[in-house]
Each structure stands twice: as structure tokens, then as C-alpha cells.
Fold:
Amino acid sequence: MVDVRDVHYGIGDRKIFAGLTLRARRGRITAVMGPSGTGKTTLLRLITAQAYADSGQILVWGQDVAGLSARAVFAMRTRMGMLFQNGALLTDLDVFENVAFPLREHTDLTEPLIRELVLTKLHAVGLRGAAYLMPAELSGGMARRVALARAIVMDPELLIYDEPFVGLDPIALGVIMRLIQKMNEALGITSIIVSHDVHELETIADDSYLISDGKVVAAGTPRELTASSSAIVRQFMGGSADGPVQFHYPAPDYTVELLDDGQS
Amino acid sequence: MSRADGMIVRGVRRFGAVTWFLVRLLAQCGPAFARPGLIAHQIYNAGARSLIIIMLSGVSTGMVLGLQGFNLLQRFGSEDFLGVAAALTLLRELGPVLTALLFAGRAGTALTSEIGLMSATDQLTAMQMMAVDPLRYVAAPRFLGALIAMPLLAGVFNVVGVYGAQLIGVQMMRVDAGSFWSQMQTSVSLHDINEGIIKSLVFGFICSLIAVFEGYHAEPTPEGVGLATTRTVVASSVLVLLLDYVLTAAFL
Structure:
């Protein structure tokens, strides 16, 4: 469904991906993990054609996204839904209108039909009662659920989640996790989740990839990753401060720098 | 490359960026007319919400004109011309210029920070992901709304200003009301009115374009939005004053 092949990408002199290869299969939840700053969000930008790879291919539904016209990119995006970290709800519209937004833009459905669809999706995320609140009146978890309802209102085939678990209290976290699973099972939506919350991903992901230094360093089911003997995987899954990813930013020797009077 | 060269290169780049943005924006203005509701809402936002400060500034400017004009004209014994003097000053100069400056400060900054915040909170990206072009949905209606609102506001400013001048000149300084109005009626020509209208159209265009451009290209951070807002006011004000000279020279 989504096939990333040997992708190289850099911003200025900084290399972000150097030969990244991974794939998200139909109907499955694919997790992409990695330390902060490894370009997880950049990967999503590449998949959704907001940015283009320097070399390599990204196939979405068999089409190379780099070769698509602006119109074709928009057509592709109407088959996807994306959940942003902060929800990215349109602040001047209420919850109902936010969810109705894609329908009003892309369909000629009648008002009663739009109403029915929107309320169904809001009911699915448990926020039918909040339909007429403004985004500013919602908590972080609620905003993310509304954004989820909006992302699925066009019945997408692919759902992309950017850090869906960040900054949620345990209850909201559980709710979001169950919703992601429900979307995947009940609607058969293929999901890609970018996150660094290892334990949450362990319970819901079917496949997972660990990215570091621009490459996939480990792939497999979350269980396989936890059991892996590779140093970087063990460091990441176990959350230890030192390992292949160092705790200390490169610096001169500590004793030397302390004893140095700063004159030299 | 010396510092001056760097500034010139940056300036040319910026001009290119604004021009390219304008081309893409104009291409989306046609489709934006399919949603008159959005444009009307922006006319309300940029226009109606600026009405109070425009009227307040208009009446005080008119009152100052009344006072200063009376004082000046009295020295030559020609107080009767107060109406003409006030009307011409307002129509040709102060109306369009002051409205544009106030408009940049009130509506322009509001536009820039609103669009900048939308971009900082991923709303513009979210729209793109929903296959909606934010240029069409966000930028074009705001640009058109501001473009339409600005000449209307300048008109309001002029009317209120003339009444302000009348308030001081006729009611306080006892200039003859008949000559105040009739002199104005005979001496103000269509040419003067056109000058005012064209100026306010050009200034409205400049202010709206800069406000939308800066908001759309603001660094998506709190500092970035603040900086963009400042740039909107500075760039709009300086350009308005520069262009005012050019337009005045062209009309005389």
C-alpha cells in the first residue's frame, strides 16, 4: 500500500534519510519509531507529497508520489486521512463544521446527509455531545478525537497518525488507542503511526520499524523488536541513557574543560 | 559580497517572492468568488471591525483640519473656503493615506497574525492534507475582503472628516454654512474624487497583499508570527507613504 524504497533526503547539509526502506501493508497497523529528530514527521511529509525525496521511490497505491501532478496529489490525499499531533482543527469553525469541512469541500451531499455522516463519526469518537463547541473549548484529548472524526469522515483507505499519544493523560491515551484499533478492525483502514511511545505501540501495532541515522535499524513485530539483541534496539526499547545513541552531546574531555581557566 | 549587496539581493528575492505569491493568489481569487459567504465574512472582519477607529480618527482629523484651516484662511480673510480646503485635503490626501495606515495597523496585523497562527498550529497543512488549497480557502477570501473593505473605509473616513471640519468651522468658528457647503460643491471636481478612489484602491491592494503574504510566510512559531506582524505594519506604512508621493505626482 505504501512502499518506501531506498529514500535519500536531506535539508541543506543535514542528511535525514540515507537509504530508508519500509512498507506499510494493507489493513495493518504499521508503527514507525525512532528517537526524536530522526525525521519521523519528515517521512510523513514525504509519503503525503508535501516534500519530495532527493532519490529513491515512494509508492502509494502503486503510484510514485514524486511523479504526480498537483491535481493527482489532491486526488490521492482525498483517499487518506491524517491526524496531527495537536489536532489542527480549524479554529474559526465549531466541532461539527470541522468534521463536515472535507464533505462540504469535496462532495455535493445534501445537508441532512452531511448532518447524519458527521454525527455518526462524532458518535464513533464519543463526542456527539460536543458537536457545537468551539475547538478552544476542547481538551487536548478531545481535540485529537475530533480530528480523528474529521480524518475518517471521507472514509479514507489510509490513516496516518503523527505522534498520536504525546501529552495525553492515561484515560485519553487509552481512549485514543482503542479508537485507532477500532478504526483498523472495523473499517479495515490501513494505518501508519509515527511515534516514540514504545509501550503503546507494542500493544496495537502489527508491524514496526525502528529508524535511526536515516535508516531502518530494526523491523518486525513489536515483540520481535523487544526481544532483539541489537544494541540500538535494546537502548531504545529499554530507554537507557547511554548506548549507540549517546546521552552526551560531543564535547571535549570533562576534566580538561573544568580545569581549563577559559583563557586558552 | 558586501553588506549592501546582500541587502539588495534579499530585497530582490523578497520582491520576487511577493510577486510569485500574488500570481498564485490571483489565480485562486476567481474560484474564491464561488464562496461569497467567506468573502463577506472577511469584509466584515477587516471592514466593519475597523469602523470605530476609522470614524474616530476621521472626525478628529476633520476637526483639526477645521481648526488649522480656519486659522490659516482667516489670515487672508478667506474663511469661506474652509469647506473646499478641508474636503480636498481629505479626499485627495488624508483620507486614503490615514485610512491605509490605520487599516494596516488594525486589519493588516489581525490578518497576518491570524494566518500565521493557522500555519503555526498546522491548520494550513491540515487543509492541504484534506486536499483543500489554503490559498483558495484562507488567503484569497481574506485578500479580497480587505481589498474591498479598504476603499469603503476611506469613503467613511472622508465623510466623517468633512463633518468634523464642519463641526469646528461652522458650529464653533461661525463660518457661514452656506458658503462652506456651496464652495465645496462647486470646487471639488470628479478628478479630485477619482484621485482619492484610485489611491485608496492602490493602498488597499498593497496593505492586503502584504498582510496576507506575511501571514502565509510567517515562521510557524510564536516569535515568527510576532515578527511577521511587525513587518506587516512597517512594510505597509512605508510603501503607502512612498506610493502616495508617486500617485500624487502622477495626478497633478
Summary: Chain A touches chain B through 21 residues (CB under 8 Å).
